[in-house]
Amino acid sequence: MKKGTALLEVKGLRVAVQGNEILKGIDLTLRDGEVHAIMGPNGSGKSTLAQVLAGHPSYTVLAGTATYDGKDLLDMKPEERARAGVFLAFQYPVEIRGITNSYFLRSALNALRRERGEPELDPIDFLQVLEAKLKAIGWDDSMMNRPVNEGFSGGEKKRNEILQLAVLEPRLAILDETDSGLDIDALKTVAETVNKLRSPNRSFLIVTHYQRLLNYITPDVVHVLADGRIVKAGGPELAHELEAKGYDWLRDAAMVS
Amino acid sequence: MSEAIKEHPDLIREYLGSVVPVTDNYFSALNSAVFSDGSFCFIPKGVRCPMELSTYFRINAANTGQFERTLIVAEEGSYVSYLEGCTAPMRDENQLHAAVVELIALAGARIKYSTVQNWYPGDKEGKGGIYNFVTKRGKALGKNSKISWTQVETGSAITWKYPSCILQGDNSVGEFYSVALTNNYQQADTGTKMIHIGKNTKSTVVSKGISAGHGQNTYRGMVKILKGATGARNYTQCDSLLIGDKCGAHTFPYIDVRNSSAIMEHEASTSKIGEDQIFYLRQRGLSAEDAVSMIVNGFCKEVFKELPMEFAVEATRLLGISLEGSVG
């Protein structure tokens, strides 16, 4: 499925954190509407890739480029990337004490709307938008008036990330191990929601350790990351192969190359 | 106040200086010696003041001191909500504010006193600004009376201020809700004293200190349960938030209990705004400054919800302005 223009093009990306080189040259092209999975063993650099694309300040780019929608992504501040349609569903969503989910989400949506030159939504208008979104994905509003992620279970935090994704409607959604810590029912719910949100104008980069999420979300391309490099890429069948064989055979291949 | 002294000398004579005596401390003595005006509120028995009484203080003249006096007397079963706001223009020299505020609540009366203090804090290098040395104290004199202090302190170069409650009447209630923010070279040393004298008296202290830049924030509080205060209760919560690595937060809680039936609770926390928290909000499209402002406002929520509506909106904005430039 090689249609659409390249939304994200990563070339020769090398990234270090606290002096340790984690990514050692990543090449990746993601087109409009495509879903790519990034798989790999622990410590291979999957989360680093997700964080660096979103602009986390702890990571240092040593070399390479990342072009998003024709722009130099690495030159943009985190909020500029967000306003340009880059969304990261965090592996460990943080808690914001005293701020309701609803207020937080409205502030975020209004920041994007300001960027697009659209009027900001007041609480009443926002509630309508939110209710329509919740209805579309079949969720209730029980999380909305609780403080952001405070006292949420692990599964609720992950669901909350997906809810934000649904409301903020990014062009590029990066899911960082959204499946970890989810029981099978929650996993299905999240996967179904992601599937509903797939569209020709939205691309997904799904970072995952396990293949099980990909049982429900069929990717266009699967990349395998080992020791900071993409050592193999293929179709959805690659995920199943990894499930059966593990990662070791690829890691060995990486060492050889 | 000067009008009240002429028109209602009996009331002034009875209550003025009855909560904060002239000899209380250096600045109360100074105030008592030189004050020329201020405000006096008298709420007669059973009257519920239908509107929030609002006052605004400003120090204009350079090289000056301001020594106003406030006296509020709420008779049996009455209620009043009193707001004060303070600002001052920028001056290179320091100015002094040494006010005295006295509250008296008779049986069943309730006084709610809210302050948003935004005196000039001095410049980025700590030059200029107001020295804010204020004595505020309330006496819950009658049974079932209640005195509630809420303050948002964002201004002044140095603040020393401890709005306190003397809980003399049985079942009387004292409350203190405070947000103090220091940026650049500001120092805030603030807190409360809750003196439990009557039976079944109850006090609540919620203090939120935010330090940014080189700011120093100190909570200094005393809870004293006297011998006769059987069944007294106190709950104190004291939270500090640090922004950056050059600021400081200090907490000095004094607890003095002389009645074994008292129940005391003290909770304290210190946290730093984390890079991960800011990044999370920026990833959702908020600027770094908006992110910090949101985190700080969430931190202060328990206090802001005690403020009258308009003041709460003001306070939220004020925190945002006071924090400008505190994130790099």
For the largest beta-sheet of chain A, the strand count, sense and barrel status come to: 6 strands, mixed
**Total number of beta strands of chain A:** 10
Query: Using only CA atoms, what is the Rg of chain B?
Result: 20 Å
Largest sheet of chain B, in brief, is: 8 strands, parallel
- Percent of residues in helices of chain A: 25-40%
Q: What is the CA-atom radius of gyration of chain A, in angstroms?
A: 18 Å
Tally of strands of chain B: 20
Series of secondary-structure elements of chain A, N-terminal to C-terminal: EEEHEEHEHHHEHEEEHH
In terms of DSSP E residues, the strand content of chain A is 25-35%
Gap between N and C termini of chain A: 28 Å
Strand order in space, largest sheet of chain A: 6-7-8-3-9-10
Based on Cα principal axes, name the global outline of chain A.
globular
Structural class of chain B: alpha/beta
3D structure, described in words:
- The complex is a heterodimer of chains A (257) and B (328).
- Chain A is α/β, with parallel strands linked by helices and 257 residues long.
- Chain A has 8 helices and 10 strands.
- In chain A, the strands form 2 sheets. In chain A, strands 6-7-8-3-9-10 form a 6-stranded mixed sheet, sandwiched between helices. A 4-stranded antiparallel sheet of chain A has the order 2-1-4-5.
- The longest helix of chain A is centred in the middle third of the chain and has 15 residues, at 101-115.
- Chain B is an alpha/beta fold and 328 residues long.
- Chain B has one domain (2-272).
- Helices cover 19% and strands 44% of the residues of chain B.
- Chain B has 7 helices and 20 strands.
- Chain B has helices at residues 2-7, 9-15, 26-34, 275-283, 288-299, 301-304, 309-322; strands spanning 38-43, 53-58, 65-66, 69-74, 79-87, 94-97, 100-105, 110-118, 129-140, 146-153, 158-161, 164-167, 173-182, 187-190, 193-196, 202-211, 216-225, 233-242, 248-257, 263-272.
- In chain B, helix 4 packs across helix 5.
- The radius of gyration of chain B is 20 Å and the shape is globular.
